[in-house]
Design a protein that fits this description.
alpha/beta, globular, 175 residues, 19% strand, 6-stranded parallel beta sheet
Length: 175
């Protein structure tokens, strides 16, 4: 379980105060996505902040299976470099697996930053995600305004427009 604690976050700060052995009931996410090996040729992912967590589970599942040849491309947006969750593991996977790559985008990058800057744009999606095709899916997870903007942008680029609540067969799936 990955939980990022936000000072003003009601749920994250509550979870942070819990002790090992405490129980909590949760529900969600909306929609159901079950990954199956080789279900698509390429899987694009756009994650914002803690939205990397469902992506991380799917990436881990794909890369742990030598029979799974799915190509995975991730665009991971954060406010600052310090906000990049799971960075060490993501970069190890990128170095060790030819089928996986990741591109970071920061709103407030440090001076020496060589990744993307600002918000995820049409140009970033075109450069780093697989082009729309019948054997491609794109997964979205992050802050609601980002997910809404990405859904519209992907639709403009020729991907199927995402539904309000995603279905397993959707080309663009929103967590």
């Amino acid at each position: 379980l990955v939980v990022k604690t936000y000072e003003s976050g009601a749920v994250s700060s509550y979870l942070h105060r819990m002790q090992v052995g405490d129980e909590v009931s949760v529900r969600g996410p909306r929609g159901t996505f079950q990954y199956k090996p080789n279900m698509v040729r390429a899987l694009g992912m756009v994650a914002g902040g803690t939205g990397i967590t469902p992506m991380y589970q799917i990436i881990q599942h794909i890369l742990a299976n030598p029979e799974d040849k799915t190509r995975v491309s991730v665009v991971f947006a954060n406010v600052s470099e310090e906000d990049i969750l799971l960075r060490e593991q993501l970069e190890l996977w990128a170095a060790d697996h030819d089928q996986f790559d990741i591109h970071y985008v920061l709103n407030n990058p440090p001076a020496e930053w060589t990744g993307g800057v600002g918000f995820v744009s049409k140009e970033i999606i075109q450069e780093y995600l697989p082009a729309p095709a019948d054997d491609v899916k794109v997964l979205l997870c992050g802050p609601p305004p980002m997910v809404k903007a990405m859904g519209a942008l992907l639709g403009d680029l020729g991907y199927e427009a995402p539904r309000v609540i995603s279905k397993p067969d959707d080309q663009v799936f929103k967590f």
